[in-house]
Amino acid sequence: MKRKLLWSAKSWDELSKDDLYELLALRTEVFVVEQNCVFQDMDFKDQISLHLLGRDEDGVLRAYSRLFDTDQYYKGYQSIGRILTHGKTRKSQYGIELLEVSIETLKKNFGPVSVKIGAQKYLTSFYSKFGFKEIGEDYIEDGIPHCIMIKD
């Protein structure tokens, strides 16, 4: 698949103030405003994660995820979290590109290990296209149905 976005992966120390402001604004726009969900987004895990930023040709942040090495989020697994695309670009296939690049970036930076995510339940069919499988029981997080999924 030809990449449509320009990707960069940055540690906490590599993020500029503008990067940080932009990614927090986009996370708030998607998770708080769009999903009408009041929750504590800033959870002190940004400092230990790798931030994957997908920008369009104009430099606008269109896709984002947080990447965690083994044991940083789930014991024995790498993880991807705060997976999102900008609402105005959802039909652009950026979500597919984001997940592909997230998985590639995990492998490149941390090596090949199983990946565990806490997925919003309505997105399980999307994640299953990338080899993720549901395990365990569904749960509610911040008022939204979720499930745990693992990709070996």
From TrEMBL:
Pfam families per UniProt: Acetyltransf_10
InterPro entries: Acyl_CoA_acyltransferase (IPR016181), GNAT_dom (IPR000182)
Gene3D superfamilies recorded: 3.40.630.30
Domain N-acetyltransferase: 10-152
Molecular-function annotations in GO: acyltransferase activity, transferring groups other than amino-acyl groups
Name under which the protein is recorded: N-acetyltransferase domain-containing protein
